[in-house]
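ok so I'm stuck.
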Amino acid sequence: MVPPPRENPQECGGGFFPGTPNSRLFPQMSWRPQYRSSKFRNVYGKAASRELCFDGIPITKNVHDNHFCAVNARFLAIVTESAGGGSFLVIPLEQTGRIEPNYPKVCGHQGNVLDIKWNPFIDNVIASCSEDTSVRIWEIPEGGLKRNMTEAALELFGHSRRVGLVEWHPTTNNILLSAGYDYKVLIWNLELGEPVKMLDCHSDVILCMSFNSDGSLLATACKDRRLRVLEPRSGKVLQEASCKNHRVNRVVFLGNTKRLLTTGVSRWNTRQIALWDQEDLSMPLTEEEIDGLSGLLFPFYDADTHMLYLAGKGDGNIRYYEIGSEKPYLSYLMEFRSPAPQKGLGVMPKHGLDVSACEVFRFYKLITLKGLIEPISMIVPRRSDTYQEDIYPMTPGTEPALTPDEWLSGVNRDPILVSLKEGYKRNSKVVFKAPVREKRSVVVNGIDLLENVPPRTENEVGQPRSGNGKLGMGKWEWGWENGNGKMGMGKWEWENGNGMGKWEWEWENGNGDGRMGMGKWEWENGNGKTGMEWENG
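replied:
not stuck anymore, here's the structure
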């Protein structure tokens, strides 16, 4: 017997209408895909024209898995390729186009620069960390650099091995975290210029760090395949997950939703993302396979729009999702595609976006092969030119909510929010003042950090060690031939230790007809003595 048609159309299976044969036989089935309403379903990516890109930049070829790029509302910083130390460029955002080869650099590190981050409260202060075991704080002059900057406002020595990550506290001024290859995370109070806490719960290299929105919790991904949620001031591990089926590479807090998102690799070596409850890491809420490529997946979360962006290292595309509070949690929206592979991506803070163009996110894409930094704007299409309040809620500004002493004493406070309606450009009143202190051994929790050195990794074998100020010594020689005869040969030697340096440079140049010249350049600098010698004939 066939049941009568239902009177209420809501009781039908969603895809059928009352009175049709299908609705009588299969009242609960639907063959239509579920339609999901979202104001962000039509978000699209728009790459900047060539004249609005930054061209001619010698982007670093370092294989360390970082972005090598940092952006704020005034400056763009990019780690560059350099010989004999580490350096990065700082370019005002309005200075687009081709950058001159001799453009001034920040070049005070003695090893490769591995990470850079702008202070969220002071636009001209940037932190960098390096293979030379140091963390340095730089104060960029108004209008950008006019000459090479070699003297940092503050030098922080506390790690015994190279430092791979730095992270600013999201609500407290002058609190900085650094993670080194000595498996330690140091919390620095920049008002003192010293570490105030050491987190030593990791058994391998820390791959990623992420604060929650008020900075009361810290999530870390580690090479020991464990995901941890820590209380940074006490160092207590609140939650820990052993990720055997999902090898975590990156982790990010999803705003104040009490959720974490990780990117990593599944047991079948496919790229994968997982969503976690921060209060229970025993099992992920959901896992989703992305593809079978090998590049690291970088996650970026926008707490204002609840959108997640996934960009793979070496990929040309950026996928984006919307994150909901109920299943299925992750809703795929669209994908920005580009043929040029990205080495890393910088992200513009919210107060630096163009609200008149309905821009909700902006990437700065590093294209190593072209020496190009390409801005990519994520735009919500709207017909009206008025301010779109529904896509621009109140967002964290540039005023800190806490002082270092307040945060270290246990106070938590949400970030101070601002509206973007008037095109928020207000300068912060916070000023960075570096403390004056002498260099000495660094003791935290009764342990001298420079004396307790774990075994070196295979990547560090053969690299010069740095300690007690001694940089090392080296010798470079090169020779080449061109056409009819020998074009030249050269020798370059240097030694640097405890404030004294001696460099020697010799060459001979001849081109068939005879000897063109010979030169020797030598100087020694110690206790104020400088000198130079030259010979040419």
